[in-house]
Each structure stands twice: as C-alpha cells, then as structure tokens.
C-alpha cells in the first residue's frame, strides 16, 4: 500500500515500488527474490550493514540530533550509518572489521575539547579535558559506550574551571562490559547550549585485560 509523504509517493503499488531519493520521486519494479547464491561482494556488504546497524542501534535517540541537518530530507541515522560503512574493512580471514578509531558520532568534526586523561575503575569513569577560550562556561557531555554488541550512553552538564573540564560519572553497565572481557569503545560528544549544536566526538578505547 502506498501513501503520500511530504508530497512524495511512498510504498508498493502492484508490481512497482515508489520512494523518495533526495528531491526526486523514484518508481521502479519491485525487487524479486533470487535463487542464485550471493556473490562475495554481496556477502561483504550485507555483513557491513548488519554490523553498522548493531553499532548504531543503542544510540539512535542521540544520533538523530547529532547528525541532523536543517531542511534536509535524508534521515540523520542514514548519515551516521554511511560514516560507519566507510570505515569498515575486510581482514585476512574475510571477516568484516570496524575501524572504531575513525568513526565520529556527530556530523561536525570540529571538537570543543581535547582529551587529557581517562581513568576507568570498576564502574567509575573520570575524565579530564583541555579547552580553548571560545568554549562556553558549561556544555553538555554525552558519553557513548559500546562493547561486543552492547551499547548505552549518558549525558551530564559539565562546567569549565581554569580552562579545563573535569567530570566523574558512574556507569551502571560497566559490570556487563568487564565480565565479557571485551574492549570498551567510548565516544565523548559535546553539545554547545548557546549555539544549540553538537560538535565532533573524541574517541577512546579501554583495552580488555583478558
């Protein structure tokens, strides 16, 4: 069944499907199920999409804002997914590997702060950042955590003192990560309340002691 969405036809009508691509209306034949085995490239692409969805799913509610573009028709989550897909490679065993260190969790690559130290003990995370004079006296820090398919995030307002930000957070999910003995990937995302804008995230990884 098709419907009108923002002046564009969307959905299936008999043997054809209609959808929007940018500012264009696309109508084409419905895809048919194939009995042929997928090629190596198709298998690789499917693995990439599966892994990207697994990584981004816990963060959808925050990424909708961090990748938002005013007046754009493209979904902000698709922008985030596109960035993740560009940072996937195939290792020597034909396994898809995410290059976490190259992934941003916001559309804007400029960052308000530079990370100085990260201390993770049990379920307590202590952070210390250097700032620059143009940064407002307080910003919102969002910490995104991901490990082996499990992800979560939390936000907190932090205040600048003598050109530095420091904060200590209690992570309720830290026990789950530690028990699995997997690397923990962090992104520190900054929101400027004056400009109402998310700025580039800083990446950090805690290596497992396994």
Automatic annotation (TrEMBL):
The protein, known as: Uncharacterized protein
């Amino acid at each position: 069944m098709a419907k009108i969405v923002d002046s564009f036809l969307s959905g299936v009508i008999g043997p054809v499907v209609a959808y929007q691509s940018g500012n264009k209306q696309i109508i084409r034949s419905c895809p048919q199920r194939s009995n042929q085995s997928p090629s190596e490239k198709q298998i690789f692409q499917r693995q990439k999409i599966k892994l990207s969805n697994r990584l981004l799913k816990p963060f959808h509610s925050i990424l909708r804002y961090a990748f938002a573009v005013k007046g754009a028709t493209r979904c902000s989550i698709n922008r985030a997914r596109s960035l993740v897909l560009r940072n996937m490679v195939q290792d020597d065993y034909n396994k898809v590997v995410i290059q976490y260190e190259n992934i941003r969790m916001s559309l804007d690559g400029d960052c308000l702060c530079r990370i100085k130290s990260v201390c993770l003990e049990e379920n307590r995370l202590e952070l210390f950042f250097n700032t620059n004079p143009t940064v407002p006296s307080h910003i919102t820090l969002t910490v995104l955590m991901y490990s082996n398919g499990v992800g979560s995030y939390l936000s907190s307002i932090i205040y600048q003192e003598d050109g530095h930000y420091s904060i200590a957070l209690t992570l309720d999910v830290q026990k789950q990560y530690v028990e699995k003995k997997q690397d923990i990937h962090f992104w520190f995302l900054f929101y400027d309340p004056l400009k109402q804008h998310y700025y580039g995230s800083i990446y950090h990884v805690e290596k497992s002691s396994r």
